[in-house]
Structures are given as C-alpha cells and as structure tokens.
Request: fold
Amino acid sequence: MAAGQASTPRPRIVLTFTRVIEFLSLFLILILFVLTFIVNQHAQLLLDPSITVPKQKQLQAVPPPPRSSKRIKNEISSLEKELDNVAADAMRMAEDVRTAMEIQKHVKGQASLEGEAKFREREPKKWWVRRDPYPSFFDAVKSSTAEGGAIIPVNLSVNHLQLVQRAPGSPNDNEQLQEEFLPVVLKDDIEFRWRSQSRAGSLAIHMKQTTAYRIVVRVAHSQKIDDEGVWIWDSRRIETTGLPDVVKCTSKLIEVGSILEWKVMVWDSSNRKSSSEWTKFAVGPENDQWTAKWITHPVDMNSWSKGDAGAFWVDKNIKAQKVACDNWIKRKQLPIFRASVPPLEKVRTALLVVGGLGSFRASLDGIPLSSSGPLDPPLTDFAQRVSYRGFDITPFLKDGQSHVLGIASGSGWWDHRPIKGSFIRLFYFPHGPNTITAQMYVTYENGKREVLIPTGGGSEGWQVTKGHLRESSLFSGEYIDLGVMSLLDGWDTRSKWSEVSSSDNTEKWTKPTLYESDTTLELWRYQLHVKATARQRDNRPSMPENKVAPIGKLIPHESPPVLPMKRIYPDEIYSLGDGRWMIDFGVGFSGMVRFDEGLPDPIVPDKYPRGHSVSTLSDDEAFITVIYGERLELTTGDFHVISDINLPLVAGMGLHDGGPKHRSKPAGSAEGKGGVCYPADHIEAGSLMQRDVYILPKNGKGSFSNARQSHFTTHAFRFAEVCCIAKPPEGMYALSYRIAFHEWGEFSSSNVRINGGYELVRNAFNSNLLGVQSDCPHREKIQYGGDINANAPSALHFFDMSAFYRKVVFDWRDQQWYNGAYAGTSYWLALNDYAGIGSGAGETVWATAPPLITVRHFQHYGDLKLLEQTFYSHLKWFDFLRDNFDRGMKVKGYHEELMGYVKEGSGLGDWLSFRGRDTWLTHESFYMAVARCIAYMANRLETKELQLAEGMALAMDTEERIAHLYLKNGKDRFLPPEPEASKLSPGPEMSLYSRVVPGEKRCTVLRNYFRRKGHTWPGSEEMRFLEESPKELIDEMVKSKEISKRGDKWAMGWSQWSGFNEGIFAVRYSLKTLSDNGFHNVAVNKATGFGVGTWEYMLSHNATTHWESWWRSEDLYSHNHPMLGASAEWMASSVAGVSLYPTTSGGKEVLFWPRFPNSARDLEYASATQGTRRGDFSIAWKFLNLPEDKKEYDSAVVTIHIRAYVPPDGTAFFRLPEYSNGEGANASVKYATVIPNLVEAGNLSNEECQARRKAKMGFNYNWEFDRKKSQWLKVSRKKTIGTPCQSFLFHSSLGDVKWSSTEIIANSQSNGVEVPLSPGLYDLIIKNWQLKPEVESDNGRIGSLPVYYESEDVGPYCADNATFDWDIEDATHLI
Reply:
C-alpha cells in the first residue's frame, strides 16, 4: 500500500491492532528486564571476589560450567534459557509491530557510505539443527562375508610415540637394523593409543564403533611368540562404547631396561574380533636411575676459561669474546667415542640408552643404529632436560662374540661456533664441550638383568679421539676430512680396536673425562631472569662467570626424532663452467646432498666462484665444496647461464651484506655483526653460507670417492652447487629430513593455483620441523610463539602432532619465568622483548602459544593428562597478565580509550601484512584468548570451578572492552576509533571469527568489511621488475589491472579481495570468516588471484616453498617459511569441506561442510582427508553436467556430487549448503552397505596422481630475466607443483559399490540443516545448483566490493545472533 493512503479504514485497523501488539510486547519486555536484573544480581554475588563466601560453601557458590560466553554471566543455565525464550517471543512481537508499521513508511535506496542505513535482514535461522536420515541405521546386526571384524586397529602408539621401522628416505640398508626409532617410556607412565580403520568387505552396520578391546604385552624376542605364558600384562576384555582416548598400563611386572611388544584386539558392533600387528617399545630409566655419567674428551673439557659462558652477553666485551673463540677453536674438531662390549651368552634382550650433547649418532660394529643424527637430541633447554634415545641391539648380541659400540658427535645447539648473530643470540643457550652418556641393559634368558658399559666413573671400556669432522655447525655446515675418515675407517668395529694412549693427544684414542659444570641450574636461571628483566638483582653475580653450563635431567624422547623422510633426486643438472655444477632438486626442503658413489677428484679453476674458495686450508690440501640455496640470483651473471645461488636469502642468523645487487645491508656487515669468531672462509662471499667442504691432503691416504654426506647439520635448499669437478657426481640424491611423525592430511582440487598454495605451505612445513617448529630452516631455525599460534591449524591438518606439540608446551614450561611470564620463543633469546609488556614477558601474541597449543592439543587428541600437567603453569601466565597487562599497555603508549592511536604501536601483531598492524587489537585479543584458554581447560578438568569463573569473567570483560572501543565511532566497521587507523590489519575479520563482535552488530560489521580496499605497493623488487619489463608487458598488466599509477610511476597493487594483504593471523581469519558467513566465493577469489600478494605470484617466480612475505625479497626475507601458511587448513576445511567439529575433543567429531564457488571457472572439484585420533575422515565433491562451453561455467545449472567417508569410532556432521538466497538445498543421500576396499582405491588413485605429477601437469610458467636485454620475460615452464588430482573416493575401482536406497534430506526455510553421519561411506547428490558470475571490485585489484556493502542482503549465515556467542567448549573459535 502506498504512502499517503493512511486515512483509509484498513490502515486504521492495522495500526490499532499493532498498538495492542506493541503494548503486549512492551509488557513482556518489562518482565524480561526485571528477571534479568534479579539474575544479574545473583550472578554478581557469585562472581564478585569482594563478597565473602564461607569456605565450606565456595564450591557450591560457583555454578557448573556453562556453554556460552555471553550468557555465562548469569551462571544459571536453566533460567537463562527461559529468559531467552521470553526475549525471543518479545522480540518477535516487536518485530511484528515494526513490520506492520513499515507498510506505511517503506523507504527505498537504503545504501549508506558509513553503514548507518537500516538494511533489510533475513529472517533469523537457527544454525545448526540436526536431522538424522538413518535414525535406526545400526539397530540391526547382520552377517558379514569379511574375515575378521569390521574394525582394524592401526597406528599403535605408546605415549603418543609410534615405532619407526625404517625411515622412508633412510640410506641405511643393513638387515640387522631393527628400527630407526624405538619409543622409550618410563615404568610408571605407559599409555596406549591406536586408531581405527575399516575392513574391506565388512557391512557398514558393523563398523560403527569399538564395543570392546583387549591389550596384551609381552617381552620382545620371545621364543614362544604365540604363547600366552610370555605375556606380562593382559588387560582382559574391556567393554567400551567407542575408541578409548587412552588406556593406561597397570602392570607391576614391567621393569626398567625391558624391551616389550604389545598389540590390541578390538571387537566391532557385531562382536567380531580383529587384532593389530605387534609393535615394540622399551622402558627406560628415570634421571636418578642412570648409572652412567656424562663424559667428554679431555682436550675439550680443558678448553674452557672462566667467563666463557657469558662472554657474549655484553656486546662490547671483545677481549672475553676473543678468549672464548680461541678456546672453541681448540675443540672445534669433533670427538668420537667407542666402547668394547664383552661376549654375552643367552641374551633375551639388550637395550642401549644414549644421550648426547650437541648431536650424536650411535653405531654397533660399524652399522648405524638409526639414520638420525643431525638434530638428535632435539632442542630443549639442555640445562633443564635432555632427551635420550633407546636402541634394541638384541640381534647383534646373539652370536656370543664381543662387539664395539661407537658414538659420533656434532656440535648441534650445544657447542656451535660462538658467532654473535645479527638477531639470533645463540649465546644465551647453555653451552659445554661435546659430551655423551650411555649404558646397556642386558636381560638374560633366566630373567636376570644387568647394566653394562656405563659411561663415567672409571669409564672402563670407553675411549675417545678426534674424528673426521674438523667443524660442524647447524648453520654453516661441516668441514669433512676424508683423510682422517680413511685413517679411522672401521673405528667402531672389533677389527680396528686398540688400547688407549696414555696421553690426551687428539690423534690418539684416549680415556674420556667426566663432564663437570662449575655452576648450578638455580644460578644459571637467576642470571637469565635478570638479563630478561624478569626479576631484580640480588647479591649473586648477574653475569655468568662460569665455564660450562649445568646439564638437565635425562628424559626419554618426547617426540619422534628427525629422520630422512624422503629421497629427492635431481630434476636438472647444469654446468656453470670451470668445474661448477648446479643441481636443481625441483623442490625446497631441509637436509643434505648424499653421494652414494662418492665424488670425483677435484679440479682447480683459475679463480674460485663466489662462495667456493676456502682460504683456511693449507696449500697441500685439495677440497670440493657444496653450497646450498633456496633461490637463484636471477639478475646477475651472463645471459642464458644459470645464475649463482642467492646466498643472502639463506644466510645463517641473517648475517649477510645484501649480495651482489640487492643490498639492504652495507657490504662487509656480515662478519662485523658476527663478531670475532665469524668464519674467515665466509667473508669473501659476504654471507654466512650453508656449505659443506670435503677435504683431502694431496699426498695423504683416502679418496674423494669415500665422500658421502654431512651428518650433523641440515641445510635448507632446492639448489646445490658442487665445485670444482670435471663432471657431475654419479649416484647423487638428497635426503629430506624432518620429525618422523605421521603425515595424515591431504588436499587437492581442480585449481592449479590453490593446489600450488597448498604445496607451498606443506613443503615449508616439511622443511621447518627439525626438532622444533621453526620459522625458517636456515636463517633462524628457532621456535617462535607467534608462528605456531598462526599456523598450528595447518600443522594439525598435515601431521599427527600429538607427541610433538606436547613437547612444545613442555619447552615453554621450562622457559617460564618465576613471575609467571612466558617468553615469545620457547627458549628465551632476548628476541623482540621490546614488544612485550615488560618483566620478561614476550609479545603477548607470541607468549600465548603455550596455553593455546594446549587447548588445540586437547581438541585434536583428548590428552587430559597434558591439561593436568600444564594447567598451573598457564594459570601463572594468566595471573601475570591480570596483574600487569593494563599497566604494561599504558607504559607502551596505548591510551585506555585509544585516543591518538592512528598507526601501529609497540608489538608484532599481524606480522608482515601489506597494511600497518593493529597491535593494540592483537595484544588485547590474545589477552582475552589466555582467559578463554584458562576457562576452557578448567571446564574440561571439571574441578577448577573458581578458575573457570575467573577466566570467563576476564574474557568477557576483554570482549566488551574491544567491542566498546571498536564500535564507539558509530560507523559499525569494528575498527579503531581514530579514522587514520581504519586501514590497519587485522580488520574486523579477527573479531568476527573469534566471536567478539556483538551478535546484533554482526551483519552490519560483515557488510562494512567489504568496504576495505587495497593499494599500490612501492616494494623495491616490484618497482625494479616494472622498470625492467618491456612495454608490451606493461600494457598487458595495465589491461589486466595488475598495475596502476603510484604518482608518476607504474606500481603493482596489493589486493583486499583478489589476493592477500593480510599478515600471519588475518590471512586465516579473512578466509575463514568469508567462507563461514556465506562469501566463500570471495575467499576463493582471493586464493586464485594473480599478482603481488598471491600464490600465483610466488609460483610464477619459481617458488616451491611458501615465502615469509607476500612480496619478493631477494636479500632479507626467507623463501622457505610457513608463517603465512594458515591458509592450508582453510583449503581442507572450506574448499573441500572437512575439519574437526569446533566443540569436539580427542578428534571424536568432524564437520563436513563443503562450500562452493559461484562459478565453475575457479573450481570444478575438490577433496581432502583429515586425520584424527579416531581415524581418517575424507570428503570429495565435483560439479556434474558442466557444459562443454566454459563460457557457460558461470551461468549453468549443475549437479553437485559429494562423497564422504567416516572411519570406525568417528562421527561426522554434514552441513547442507545454502543457496545464495538463503534457501536450504535438498540433498539425496545413500550409504555403502558393504565397505569397499578404500585402501586399494587410495593406492591406485595415488599412482595415477604421481603419474600426472611426473608429467608436470601443474603450474606452467615462470618470470625469467634476460640478462642480455635486462628484461623480464614470461616463459612457459611445465611444473609438478599444483598438479590437480581427483580423490580416491571417486576412483573407478569403486564403481561396483553396493549402495543403500536413497533418502531425501529436505531443506528448511527456518533452520540450517546438519546431518549426523555414522561410520561408513556416503554418496550425496544436490541437484539444480545455479552457477553465476563472480563479483568484481570497483577498481580492479585494489578496489572494494560495493555489490555487498550496498546490498540489502548479507548472505544466508548472518542473522542468527545466538550462533555468534563463543562456546566454552569451542577450541576452534577461541581466537
């Protein structure tokens, strides 16, 4: 009815009726307010610490854990629900009033530039309502044709550790080697876990869940392997409803030194039994149960002076630093140790336990016991805890003969060259001479057990000498003396055994000496506290005056060791002239080159190329150098000749002078920054290189053909230069090292750029998991909290991080200062302390890694013990922040109302964004996250009611403070109040994702989010690229809107909606917020964009690992850095559609929620697998009935075909997609009544995918520099990276699956539908899906999206305010 007709009778009737409704609604609202006031007063009595509560009533005064952060203030859930119902009724009636009155005063043109208009919102939907298409799916039990039960137990682990029989890339081929890694646990701490896999041919109804299990343990190497009489523990059959989180071993018969085997039998839903294979573990000694002592070479122990430990703590203490360096040079040649093992008879088992500092590799009779070594043990605070390894050497001792145990060593993190570092201050680590401790537990057939050949005391049987490594460095590589190697050939065998010399000559075997520290842990930690300003000085020395550090307690390995996980063969080999060879391995990784057939003899060029001269050798020594690098220096050298390796990019500790062309640092600064001990051989190159040097005296014994590999270092590289030899080496490949945990996440799609981005992240992770989760594997190698917080969701997608992330939390627990503060790195190195709030605290975001990782660990693995072990450490951090945060932020210059806050303040925040960083928001949000973590853990522990209430109260206060400040200017953009700060990052996406934006503002803030724009970029490499590009290329880039004018020059532009501008946190928040709120098409557009700030940009510049920055950097930022890699989890969870359910624990529940692009131009199919504690969940989807003409890919009506697999003992919830108009889609669903052979389908699918990758069907072009014309050219170049592969769920071998009848899941106008899926294979069809064009910005790549912020509608997922509260069991949206 038109306006102006209000006098007609009908409107009068309507108005009268609406007034009655309005009166009733106001009356109901009044009642609501009265009830709310009463409840709030009661809650205040419970939460206000100033109100005294009798001790005996305190527990009753705190209510049980609620489920909603906004509603937890009331603390009375039952009344709260009633209030919600009353409120909803009142609001609906009020809405009826408004609707009726709008008949008379409808206003058109509701677009507002500042988000002030009242847009039409959708009718609120409830997300998510569950509809089960198979309510009685598992009621009946039928017969099965499969042999054995439907559930197979796999991936058995003890204390989260799995046996590694042979690392995939191991060069060890000796059959006597039992395993690469034997899990070792303590006697009173044995926990069993396993995962579930379906048996092909089983009925789906039988694989729902494990109904019972039985675990048996026996002594390894038993003669009667099937005899129950040798079992030393039998849990008997235990009834269960699903896979248990953990089973604790309660045997009283297990003793230290035992080598044991165990297996598990499980019963399925039809009571049919299956058994796992036997697997092995050992029981090692606790710290005080060691007989052995730490031993070292006498020369090394005597090469320390008082004050060496603190020589580099004061920058200008040059004299002391020179002394420390001279002392280190005396011991830089690495020692090797050996012991004679006497003949033994009737041995049942023999367990060797070894610890070493820096790194070690054990062998027996010349056979390496593991291919680990580069980082064994992994980095911990060695003054507090040191990991030891266990080896089953039983097969070696069955012959009744004597043997020789050998232990070689490298410097590792313990006694590296004392370089000051550009910003990595390794001198704060504890240090000492290389040292080992070892002993052997022998159990005889009669049950007797004894400890043999312990190090220490008299060290009978032990010898030490200097080995063939002249120097070993984790950062700069090794000097390998092939002459000494030849002289020592067989040093760890009986044939070369000799008695010790009476002298401590470095060329003779001599008796080792005991390692003796001249300080205490208490004093050492006190000095670190004072240096970090975590405590005040007292009368003790605040600077270390000691020689060597204390050594911490010995513990079994907490995570798998670093092992060679892959052999990588050269992709291309080029001659660079003068005997220099460039080897391109085709992908970036960490490891070293191995020469199975040795090296040819060297040649001597007229002049050694940059980096290949070795000035410290004598004239009678020949050498061959291997330099490692991740990038080529493209713009130097002769035309059509492959360039030098770009050394600055990989410079250890950032020590470089900028290289030949890209100079961000003045020439000569590398050695100046490195200090008095900077290696002279690296000065000419201007960079602390990754380099191995093979040396042989010209007239001595030995041969270059005996060269094999470096052992106690890892290099990060794709390219290697070998110089100088007449021909390339034969039998050459590389070993790729990382922590040997299970890689269980997969993703692929039809889009090469998205696939390429996924591989960039995965390859960077594979390079950076070397005992710690490092930021980059060459320049720094250390563990930053910010990086882990940002990209842990992706790491948890890729790998089983259960053991490793537990170690990470323990690393930070050791570091924690006495005042409760955590540092920003897992070991304090005085890095970025300025960005924290003082008193030793790291930057708030970085220092919050320990509690956040603990929560995420529980969500994935359900390890309640980790919560119990670490809760009070995290609570100390929480208390520290409560006492110091507000004051610290004020000291840092943040006004409490953010007055004057117009640009990034003190902090790290959303690191390496194109934008400025909103450091206040990230500080404040992670302060809130700490409080939420405490509440989450207290809720899960069930006995921490007070901490739960305190955590939630602080979390809500912080939420409200953020919301108050970021909405105070009235524009509803959820940005800082000062207009000048509106372009900072993160924008509103962080607070939308983490449920901080108030529900009633959610739609408006989301709409206004699309106002954000990009900008031109003045990056030096990008500007130089355009200056060196031909005119036709410039014209092409102008036409595609990749570049625009910046002043009078062309400049590339970073994009908000067609690429990435976000830093390490906002990149995930942006993608997830868009996909979760109905704008998945925009997220896909960001991921498939081109130009600076995209994966296309990296791939076109020949990247195979993710860069540290979105822009090119040829002399500063790393090109192997997973920091920005949180996007990989988005690909699996949103593009394909599988992730953990937000409120699950122990990976019990998974969410299948595939989102689809507007147009099939970007994506035609996608698939992913997500491993969990239960098993592997998989999903795949594809568009069917696509037209032949791709021009119709944004207008056709298609069918969506989805398949999903839920493993035994798992539960999934499938969310039906919504059409863009908010109507739910109908779906038909059926399930496989008999489980097909999915393992075979996976293997066949993988073979086909590998064939496609071998054919290089991925990304297909590069930017390459024509040095003759000094121009950049776009060159076609076939690549493996990005190759699309279809899912095994659609493999042709599954063509004869027996399906159930089809059920229809109807959509709902009022509710989003979530379908529970029990274990099984499902097939879903969604018909009549309308494709449509993608939206475009208003100004090319750098524009905004007015089509959304001027729209009356903001998508199907926006309007239900209740879903925007944070749930206390939700680990996904905690931050």
In short: The two ends are 48 Å apart (CA to CA). The first helix runs from residue 9 to 47.
